[in-house]
Amino acid sequence: MRRILAAFVSMAFFAVVSLSQTVRTVNRYGDAVVYVDGNSIRDKNRYGDVLFVRDGNTVRLKSRYGEALMYIDGNTVRDCNRYGDALFYLDGNEVKVKNRYGTPLVYIDGPVVRSRNRYGDAIYYFEGVPSLWVLAALLRY
Known about the structure:
This protein is α+β, with helices and mostly antiparallel strands.
């Protein structure tokens, strides 16, 4: 009997979702945790702050303090630490990886790769090197 009731409830839930295209998941305090409307998704913490937003091909991921951790828009990706500093930036074939102080550690633009230590000093510089060699050299450290 419980299985039949659970199946009925789940079918009713998905029928409502498919008709309205709007879903709200609420936590025990009544705050909206997940909000789905068409292709828009918002995920919130228990205080109501937006943690995750997807609207079309745009994604924003935030920490529990509300700072943006990841931002995706098309082929652009920004990954930030909890203070909002960009750690990873991808735009087309251009990649920047930074440490927690914001110093660029790896910079990739097409066949050009620069790798730096935590003080920002250049360690590697590749230009025109096949990507497998670049990855092998970067993974060593």
